[in-house]
Each structure stands twice: as structure tokens, then as C-alpha cells.
Amino acid sequence: MATTMTLCAQTSPIKRASTRLNSPLTGLFQNCTLGKTPQQSLKLLVLAKRTEAEEPLPSWAKTDSNEPPPWAREDGAASVKTTKELPFFVYLLSSAITAIAAIGSIFEYVNEKPVFGVIQPDSAFYAPLLGFFVFTGIPVSGFLWFKSVQAANKEAEEQDRRDGY
């Protein structure tokens, strides 16, 4: 807003009250009362004007506007989605689970533990199965992470559009 000076010190007999006003042209309202009785009091009113560097107030936020805020508007055609996409956290959770399984397969191969307690290390399927999990799991995990970032960015852009930015 603007710089305000405090004329009411804590150690003086001046009482201070500050209130935030909702008007776009005013900032901090400071009411200082000097004196112990109402007859001896001196009131001071300080209003701060908005500076030019601040962002302009959106049309829906003005007090005399009947326009609803962007999140309350109903965009008939825009609210109907043609494709159903998964939310970003589904992609992110799938990526984490796939990465854990792929790294776990490396540890199972190195320590020669049975795969799922079923396929023993001396089986012909032991190395190919763990190799499949490792060599497909790590790229799939990266792809799912990339999709989660894309979906999160898309949701953020959609929310920004609805908010009017």
C-alpha cells in the first residue's frame, strides 16, 4: 500500500487503533487519540492512497459491480470436457510405485531372493523377469512422472483461466 508513520507510541498516553478498509482507494486507517478524557482528546485520521505500481482491481472485485467472480461463473461450453483425463496425483502415485518396484527388482537380483517368493534364483525365468521389471519399470516411471507434471500444469492453467489471469 503506502508507508504510514506511527504517531502513537506505546509509552505515551496516546491510544492507537488500526483498521483495514475494503475500499480500493484507502489503505490503513489509523485513529490516534491523545488525552485521558474525551474533552482533552485529539483525533488524527491517516488515509493512504494506492500507488501506481500496484495491480489494478479486477472489474468483478469492484464494490458497485454485479459481475460474479471467475470461479463462480458457469461457462456452459467450457465446463463440458470432451476427454476424460486422470488427475495428476494418479500419475504421480503410479510413477512412485513403478519406480519402487523397478529398484526393488534390482535388489532382488543382487541378493538372489525369490521373486514374489515363487520364482527361485536358479530358475531360467529369474533373470529375464527381473530384467523386464527393471528395464521397463524405470522408463515407465519417468514417463508417468512427466505425465503428472503435464497434468498438474494443465490443471493450474485451467484454474488461472477460470480466475481471470
Question: Can you offer a commentary on this structure?
Answer:
It is a single chain. By secondary structure, this protein is of the alpha+beta class. It has two domains: 1-53, no CATH class; 83-163. The chain contains three helices and three strands, in the order βββααα. A three-stranded antiparallel β-sheet has the order 1-2-3, with no helix packed on it. A hairpin with a 7-residue loop joins strand 2 and strand 3. Helix 2 (88-111) runs antiparallel to helix 3. The model is unreliable at 1-21 and 23-30 (pLDDT under 50).
Features:
single chain, 3-stranded antiparallel β-sheet, elongated, 165 residues, alpha+beta
Q: Which helices and strands appear, and what pairs or packs with what?
A:
Elements: E1 15-20, E2 28-34, E3 42-46, H1 76-79, H2 88-111, H3 126-163
Antiparallel strand pairs: 1-2, 2-3
**SS elements, strand count:** 3
Major β-sheet, in short?
A: 3 strands, antiparallel
Output the strand order for the largest sheet. 1-2-3
Integer tally of domains:
2
How would you summarize this macromolecular structure in one to three sentences?
This protein is of the alpha+beta class and 165 residues long. It contains 3 helices and 3 strands. The protein has helices spanning 76-79, 88-111, 126-163, and strands at 15-20, 28-34, 42-46.
